[in-house]
Design a protein that fits this description.
Layout (H helix, E strand, L loop, with lengths): L2 H8 L6 H13 L2 H8 L3 H15 L4 E4 L2 E4 L1 H29 L3 E7 L1 H18 L3 E7 L2 H9 L5 E6 L12 E8 L1 E5 L20 E4 L2 H13 L5 E5 L3 H9 L5 E4 H6 L6 E4 L6 E7 L7 H16 L4
Parallel strand pairs: 3-4, 3-5, 8-9
Antiparallel strand pairs: 1-2, 5-12, 6-12, 7-10, 7-11
Length: about 325
């Protein structure tokens, strides 16, 4: 680091980590009183920490609003850093606990539904057999919610997906491991005129009625269809892949589904087709920075990678 950079760092206001974590509780709970109750402090003590931060940083962080408070724009920006600090401290404590006790503890995974039913289910089974000291817990969340839970230290591993048309760079705040490439398939009724064909182009289904999936999947369908020269007639919307296949099997629409969803639950009354020149979506495991050094997290990631390698493509 240059002397100029050192001088720049020294000019930055010193942020008290304790006050930062107190402010995090205020932002999380929405009031000084609730934060004081959660911390076991008095309300004036909590208020003093918030005011100290405001004096040091030179910006208002919270303003009174009726009986409660409202977090300012600067306050919300600071809360993102407070979440990162809280997560890093928690990871540091867990890593030290690993060293001190030589045990692993609990690993919390947040994953979208089809990954939960395939990758995570297999991971939990193997972990119970091979690492009985590690308890793996699952919360089912879509990628945006899973990433938010990871940021706020509410989970340790977030399993997310990113379509080729969506920039996975939005996950650059985390360490990333690519688990697998998940092909997207066309799902047709068994009596469809193209049901006996192999790979199909999206444009061949331009006149069909469609089922739209989760918000990200629906957006991907719209973008892919637009690239193929048409706008899909989306008649139904559901993020439940069992319902999607039931609608298709009833000859009410056609759909696209990722291979993981078809692997998790396969309706035998539909036909499945690769899509020509259509890139797969990427399935990623996210962790907070350096969290992979924690014994339990590393073991769980290794088991997820092994489960992904064993998983056949539908």
């Amino acid at each position: 680091m240059t002397s100029a950079e050192n001088a720049g760092d020294q000019s930055l206001p010193p942020v008290d980590p304790r006050s930062l974590l107190v402010f995090r509780e205020v932002g999380r709970l929405g009031s000084l009183t609730a934060a004081a109750d959660a911390l076991g402090w008095t309300q004036p003590a909590v208020s003093q920490h918030v005011r100290r931060l405001e004096r040091v940083l030179g910006v208002p962080l919270a303003v009174r609003q009726g009986r409660g408070i409202e977090i300012t724009q600067a306050g919300h920006a600071l809360l993102r850093h407070a979440d990162a600090v809280a997560g890093a401290l928690r990871d540091a404590a867990r890593e030290m606990d690993d060293h001190a006790r030589a045990r692993a503890g609990v690993v919390r995974i947040a994953a979208f539904p089809s990954a939960s039913a395939t990758l995570v289910a297999g991971c939990v089974r193997v972990m119970a057999a091979q690492h009985p000291g590690i308890e793996v817990r699952l919360s089912q969340l879509e990628p945006p919610e899973a990433a938010a839970a990871l940021s706020s230290a509410e989970c340790d591993i977030a399993i997310v997906f990113a379509h080729a048309s969506a920039a996975p760079e939005r996950f650059t705040d985390f360490d990333r491991i690519e688990l697998l490439a998940d092909p997207v398939r066309l799902v047709l009724p068994p009596g469809h005129p193209l049901a006996d064909q192999g790979a199909l182009g999206l444009a061949e289904l331009r006149g069909e009625r469609w089922v739209g999936g989760c918000p990200s999947c629906r957006q991907h369908l719209l973008e892919s269809a637009a690239a193929a020269g048409f706008t899909p007639d989306i008649r139904h919307s559901t993020d439940d892949y069992v319902v999607v296949q039931a609608l298709v099997a009833s000859d009410l629409a056609v759909a696209t589904l990722p291979s993981l969803a078809l692997r998790a639950s396969r309706n035998t009354n539909v036909s499945i087709h690769p899509i020509k020149r259509h890139p797969p979506r990427r399935v990623l495991a996210l962790t907070r920075r350096n969290a992979q050094q924690i014994t339990a997290v590393r073991a769980t990631l290794d088991t997820l990678l092994a489960a992904a390698e064993r998983l056949p493509v539908e």
